[in-house]
## 1
Amino acid sequence: MSNIAGRVREVFRGDQRVDADALIARLDAVRRFLTAVDGLLPDGDLVPAHTLVERAGTRLALSRDHTVVALAGATGSGKSSLFNALARLELSPVGVRRPTTGVTHACVWGPLEGANHLLDWIGVLPRHRFVRESALDADDETALHGLILLDLPDFDSVQRSHRLEVDRLLGLVDQVVWVVDPQKYADRVIHDSYLREFHRHRDVTVVVLNQADRLSPAEVPRVLDDLRRLLDTDGLTGVPLLATTAVDPAGMVGLRDTMERTVAERQAALRRLAGDVDTVVADLDQLVGSARPAGGPDDTAVNGLNRALAGAAGVPAVTEAVERAYRHRAGAATGWPVVRGWRRLRPDPLRRLHLPGPPGDQSDPAESLVAATSVPDPTAAQRSALGLAIRAVADRAAADLPAAWPGAVTSAARSRLGDLPDALDRTIAGTDLGLDRRPVWWRAVGGVQWLVTIAAVVGLGWLVLGYALRVLGLPALDNPMVGAVPLPTALLLGGLLAGLLVAALTRPVVRWAARRARARAEQRLTARVAQVGDEYVLTPVRIVLGSYAQARDALRDAARR
């Protein structure tokens, strides 16, 4: 879709016919473009496209059997005289006082009833509508049946309301006949403000040099050649250029023949709308261009976003708590039974963050219903890092897009920023941190600790019993010997030493396993946080990029003929 505007400027249909179905397909493509960019681009840039869709639909629905031709010109150009000469009736007032035409007059060739709805839409008052139908004409006017000729107010009128009316009607009529006179045919107002703006409507534009009778026969060709040069400069190469005079019927033959041909073709309305589509497409091209957007931001930007989200969500604090909680729970499960109760009195690190406590812990059942955690709020630096990461995602995603779109991509990336804190908190609270089950080796080590503790208790009780018997003067029990050491003493000391040894051997294993638990929790939390980032940041960005692709394709279809 390279340089649509350039291609549109080269189009001049001339005698080429405009297919109505193809035109409707182009209008539908413009409608699809507007749907795709709704809410993404400034409304002011889309007003012409919305106006085109509305006007085209109405114009095609009203009547294809009528052709609306407007006579437009400056004060004193003789529009009204030309209007009356074409109608062969005195319908529009003519006089020396300027401006004479203050309201639009319409002359309809054929029954007025069929044209009323179209004239209502155009805005011509009923009292200014005339019918060119007379039994005295016989078949003289048959060739113009279906023509609606408008005499517009002067576009250079000192009354602003007249100029506004002209501008409004020029956007509605099917064909425009620009009327210039020998004195002001080179006036900058008509060329800069009007003719040059109609360069994409060359196929529905006719220019007449009126009042040619004021020139000598030798001057007429020179003036026409100079006017043709000006029209070529305006981009109106190839438009019909005629010399007319309202005072001589012979001076109207060329214009009347042009009108008859236009009415017979029934193409003016379609060509006008096709030119409107060309104009709108050319103006919209700068909003879309030819860039093919990526499917989303690159991996570098996404990874940066995930890191920033993890920091804002408090993942480092949670993973540190996971490591401490693992050591805490492992110590309670594998430590010396005598001190396990003391460990349980200390709060679990995860419970301090309102995260799941040890399995089977029902100390606060209501807490399971709490959606929020007590993870520390992000710092100012973390919030700033998140904002920069979101901006980087938008910048990378919109790097190749036209100037109108990066703002829409950035807005989409930030559209759910206010919902992120709660979403991240819910995600942290709902993530399985991998501490729900007690490892089997905890049970094994805990069982060993219970065995050595029981052995120590048995040895201690045996020694206490023997000491009590001796104090009471009762016969003492013979203690079995383990080498040179009595069995009760061996049980007591062996149990104590074995418990300390198991604890010493278990401690580095617990630290290593706690680090693994932290890494596992970090991996899970990062993955869940990345899902939040995808839903709340990346998905809106992809939607905008998808809308851009749809708009680009729709505009490409609208440019086809």
## 2
Amino acid sequence: MRHAKQHLNIWAILSLVFVAVILFPNLLIGFKFFTEPNENWEHIKFYLMRDYINNTATILIFTAILTILIGTSLAWLIIMYEFPLRGFFRWGLILPLAIPPYIGAYTYHGLLNYTGVIQTTLRNTFDIQVNQSYFNIMSTQGAVFIFTLFLYPYVYTITKSFFQYQSASLIENAILLGSSPTSTFFRVALPLSRATIVGSVTLVMLEVLNDYGVVSYFGIQTFSTAIFRTWYGMKDLDSALKLAGTLMFIVIVVLILEKMLRGRKRYSYASTKVRPIHPKRLKGWKGWLLFAYSFAIFSIAFLVPLAQLLYWAFMTYETIWSQAFFQLAKNSIFVASITSTIIISIALIIANFTRMHQSLFTKLVSRVTTLGYSIPGAAIAIAIITIFISIDTFLAKWDTGIVLRTSLVMLISAYVIRFLAIGYNSVEAGFEKIGNTFTEASRLLGASTIRTFFMVDLPLMKNAIAAGFILVFVDILKELPLTLFLQPFNFATLATQAFKYANDERVQEASIASLLIILISATAIFIFHRVLEKKEAN
């Protein structure tokens, strides 16, 4: 019993250490927000803050509305009807998530500008001169367009799963009682799925708040660009922290609104026999109409930007495909692999502690662990910079020669804080699936907590661990704001190099790095879809 308590204390201590590391940057931002303001902050507050708030709010609101419309409508049509290529669209409509919005931004700008393929074709083939304002995507409206295209899969994927299983019986009963599909959608499906839709669109809004690549490339003044400019342009860390605090306040407002919109209603079933909806086969023009809608969204959000990137890659591969490019790929894979391993290790420790010791405290630990994903990358970056500057100042007193602020340690630390929630959710789901039966049997046979963890739990958890590792790996591979803020000197990744080329108006040269990111992400999406389909079949 003594050894068991000691081992449990070890899990508890390690969990508390990791939770404190995650929580500290947030507390720092909150503390710095109320410190004495300087002249830069007064200027920002009186002359620039209104633009930051208006632009951020406009992009958030319209992106949320459009992603709900597209994602929910596609989910309903895919679940309810059988039409040509429906099987492909079930997972194909998720693929736009493989394209980071900043890559989509410079791809569409390259397509639509004066020298792009669309205007060039109109001038040279059809002798049509167009008004340039019609094709100007570098605006707030253009940013909403980009975010909608490449983030709607969040709403589509989560809502589709809910329609197919959680609300299947109620939807089918409504139809059997004579309700039309349209009436069933508005009177049954939408009210039932309100919490699901709100939760999924909240993820979209958090991604928009985290973005730096799109708004920076389009020249839109938002909090992310303001933080970057204040820190790098003015060298004013205090004002950057206050901006980060303001951005954190917006995040809190979004999360509170999510809770309010979700409401307190809960829907559950008395029976465990929950079956999927059997889609109705559509023949003739109706089926082809649904095919056209699905194909149009898939083309605009995935095929068109992919085709443009492939064309640019063919034009530039001789100059880009070099030893330097392999170094970029090596850097990206290295930092993503190391960070993913660290995140999964921390997630295993915290999740194992919370399942062995169920209490209000462990529930709080679990919530804090997932807090990082709701914090925009720019805010995390500023907090991490402040912390590591303080650490370096302390180490300088001891003449250790260690400088952490220009090392990979700072970047990896920021990655861990931001993406721990993804790894933790996967690991926690794995622990819930295997339960405690085998763990308790091992303990009864005399094995220690640590031995049980390595000999029993880990082998049973291998699928959840692999899933969490791949999800974190892909997210880090695509991540831009943190890497731009915190990358060491002479260290670049595929994401930062692609953005640098695009920002220097060399979008063609950015294509190969972008394609590699998309290829890895799309492969992961396909694998997870297949795994999910097998689980659903069982």
## 3
Amino acid sequence: MPLTFSVVINTNGRLEYLKRTLSGLKYLTYPHFEVCVVAGPTADGTVEYLQSLQGQIKIEHCPEFNLSISRNIGIAMSDGDVVAFIDDDSVPEPEWLADLAKSYTDDSVGAVGGFVYDHTGIEFQARYVTTNRRAYASDWDVPTPHLNFPFSLDVPHLLGTNCSFSRKALLKIGGFDEEYEYFLDETDVCCRINDAGYTIVQRPDAFVHHKYAPSHLRDEKKITKNWYPLIKNRVYFGMRNGLYHHTVADTVQAGIDDVKSWTKSVEWGESEGIYTKDDVERFLAQADKAIVDGLTRGTQPAKYLRKETLEKCHSKFLQYPRLYPSGTRRVICFVTQDYPPGQNGGIARNIAQFARSLAALGHYVHVFTKMRIAPAVDYEDGVWVHRVAINHHEPPLVSPLADCNIPQHIWDYSQTMLQEIRDLNEKRKIDVVYCPLWDCEPIAFVLDSTFPLIVALQTTMSFWLDSQPLKAIDTEWMRAYGHPIMEMEKFIISHTPLLHANSHAIVRDIEKRYKIQIPQNRVYYSPHGLEDWAAGMPPSDRNDEAFRLLFVGRLESRKGIDVLLKIVPEILHDFPNAILDIVGDDTISFGQT
């Protein structure tokens, strides 16, 4: 029998993030898993949305703001061999469960977790982490199995958004301690799993991306507003797990040290206008109560998973439906300088639609584009979007274009994207790369020839110059930029294995202008497709007799606006009530294509 997983998502007030997490799970390579969602008390439409997924996921409700209670409900719901937890503001990479499954080799393995990317999608929030018996964490460059023995001072730790546990082991130790309403909940479980003699495995893969969404404990700026559980649970954790190594005084001192640290942070925040005077007073009141409560409750019986919760919430395994194409699932990469949001030109919008459509079929789709603010990797509408910082690269010394004087910024861009795709190929094999011809984006890929390449034909430099007469007569600009671009375009068109043309006309025009013959077996003809934004909208109730004409495009001669304006008098002659709407950008950049 294959190993089965129950993926538990504990959610509260984060519907849009939750949708993204559920979407990401549809692309997992590992098929044998169910999804158990526990919704919290915030009314934001989450429950109604989850009801629409009846038959695909298991659904339960947690009536209070307590993550450990919610997680225990998830354990009770589960019917898999392994219970895996992922936060509602996280997205797994496709191999997540398949990688975790590799380490569940025998019954001695009680927990397995992988690496967690932070909100950038580039830097790691957690790799190999241990926590000591006062719940202070340490980062390691290597896994720490040598610390995995009962009652060790330091214990291998798994982050809550990427941790999994043998269901048998969880039930044996009593699940989560519901005193931990938030913070150190999974740390406590790792300690008790360790002390029960189970192996904890820290994997260098099984990647999850964590986006740090706002919650009832932190706002949208990630500013902490509730310090009580952070301090109280530090003391409580030490009372539960640290008294083999520390005195009660040591344990209380950990809480006091936290208060001192937070006091400096809060007082600084008040001076910067981040916190108000009321915030400071509330912090001080919470701090005193937190230390007393942590100490007191640490001497009382723990609040573990209850039998009645198990009996009420458990149900049979419910396979989660994955997205899978009718044929072979492919890894498809798009390379484009511009991509929404913010960049909404024709190429950007067309590739965005193309990428989303292929992802909706179940393919693994990655878009590589230039960063606008900072480097990041984001999961958007089923597509992994890599916003890349462009690095400097020396031009190739030996190549068919060695004498071409490739513009440096074009080479830097194309070579950077090639390196990014090489790096991704180390993780999952890339089947095809798709680039627009515009600005010679594919040049490094054509010269390298490692990856199967499709180049989309757009307006070339030669055609662009038809509407830019001042550029065409600028000798220096043409020497440094215009002529090299046209030479590279000709090279790309002649050496790309497959070209995508939106019409036969563009191929004929390019052949004529560049004096080349493009073999028809290297061209795939397909018009550009875009979403019908009017689909599902109510029909117009207009009852006037006006004739409306809409032009959408940049206000330059290349788009034909001059031709349209010339014939406006004729239109008005034939249609006196005609209304002409012109939508477009009249700010044309002449510096680069």
## 4
Amino acid sequence: MSYSTQQIRNVALAGHPGAGKTILFEALLHAGGALTTAGTIERGTTVSDFDPIEKDRGHSIDAAIASIDHAPAGQPPVHVNLIDTPGYPDFRGPTLSALTAVETVAIVVDADTGIGHGTRRMMEYSGARRLCRLIVVNKIDHPGAKLGELLDELRRAFGPEVLPLNLPAEGGKRVADCFRQSSGTSDLGPVSDWHQKIIDQVVEINETVMDHYLDLGEGGLSGQELHDAFEQCMREGHLVPVCFVSARSGAGVMELLDVFERLLPHPGEANPPPFVKGQGDGATPLEATPDPDAHVIADVFKISNDPFVGKLGVFRVYQGTVRRDSQLFVDDGKKPFKVAHLFKLRGKDHVEIAQAIPGDIAAVAKVEELHFDAVLHDSHDEDQIHLAPMEFPRPMFGLAVTAAHKGQEQKLANALHKLAEEDPAFVVEHNMELNETVLRGLSDLHLRVMLDRLKEKYGVEVSTRPPRIAYRETISGKAEGHHRHKKQTGGAGQFGEVFLRVEPLQRGAGFEFTDEVKGGTIPGQFIPAVEKGVRQVLASGAVAGYPLQDVRVTVFDGKFHPVDSKEVAFVTAGKKAFLDAIAKARPQVLEPIVDLEVAAPEQHMGDISGGLASKRARINGTGSARGGEIVVKAQVPLSELEGYAAELKSVTAGRGRYALDFSHYEPVPPQVQQRLVDAWRPRHEED
């Protein structure tokens, strides 16, 4: 099928775990004719959960893409790119990556359990990215689902702009349109009540449409006027439509696809992507126009490494047309690569295509230079262009790993590099001082899945040590440090002397290095060496072996020798002077504090609160949820949550669940700091 940018719709399905995104993904592909039979999670036959680990665990771990070519009745055909994203917060990296490639996020809500932590998070993330948002209430045919109460909860939680486009009817066996239809009945009362609310909400955003509506009534509005006003409402956050479906039975699925096709914005209508040209403070906003004849601008939002296909880079085209045999640059690279093969994705399958136009999603294989968030372009006029980065959760859980079998060290390093390419929230660090490789992820589950992938996908087994918390170090006062490095070995010697000052910065500010040397007491060519020595301490820590942050270092004096002064001497002097200053500046160890949200049956409230109190938690509030559940919100040191999943399962008979997000760093209690300091055995360089 050939199509234009105006016929493309890009939609990501997101939301809380268990809401039914994957089954809805299958149902939409089936409704649009892309599948003859919808797959099931139980049989492991879904298009999106094709990874063996996903099949084994029964939930999504990575984002999956497929498209629908479908023509609504009496309308031109539409090409819908659908992305199914993981619901578990442990795998939020692929989910947030997918949000950079779409105009609309359809946030799926379970009719039984209602608003979850993932629902709120996805509403926040997509709102911050200025994406159009649509809420899809799934499982409407489940007995006992209180859909009227849920709609009220959604409006209380996310505002009066949350309004239904359709309503459940006949006990959830079908849905009744309340946008185009002004009469009829539903399980939530007369259609007319909601019809008037949503029409009023839509027309008030556009002055011309409002005037026509007041003069001529609803019947005087053209279909195009309503569409334009509807699209403007979604783009400006003035409307968050709600659609009701049952992905299992199919109720409302075709109607949802119809909403995608008729009402959602195409790539030329939505808020423009946040591109900038240049670096740092000199960067200026750049508007990519969906012109197929302009220079190419595309953004790589997903990388996958297949042992058979090789590296696959999935990208969204924002401007220009990518054709087979095109020559494209990666970021500011000087040498282009040739697009030998261009693909559309359908889960694990790759369908070769001739071109990808503005707004479309496509992939290229076997281009090693590709990486997540790379910008592809076909002219050096587009050098230094970047898409504003998505804010990813901080990977807080650590695990030290070594190859289980000798001779596999390089194979392990290569495999970890490939896994880190695929997930922006998975980080591989190498601690030079301890000579260990540390994996960092969003949870124990996240790290366990990565270890499973290491074994299943790359054939690498590892030995692990207990998780290491991502502590940090800082200082709480000002101080000066000094060190003279002098070494004579019979020939040319080494000499360098450094005086420096340290002071704390605001939490989260990072590191600043300032040169205030006057009179050439340290020649300018040696200042970078001093900074190098300081940065060695930043990486390895000074009191407990953890990276140092939120500190300003000012070099203000020193001495050199015209013959013996060398770079290595000032590296050592800078390092030792920095350590001297830190020891006098009241050093502190910082620990990560997380926002914890626990949901469980109400009768377990006492056990949960008591357990959290024993973990140095600050409980910020409690609330009631649907089905007799309570929700406890607290801030807790991450170090106190080791084994919490098993503990919560035990006290709630398996009915409790929790989610956490990084909040901030704060100093550990003195007794904890002393324990961490005593446990650290730094290896100091000998003079």
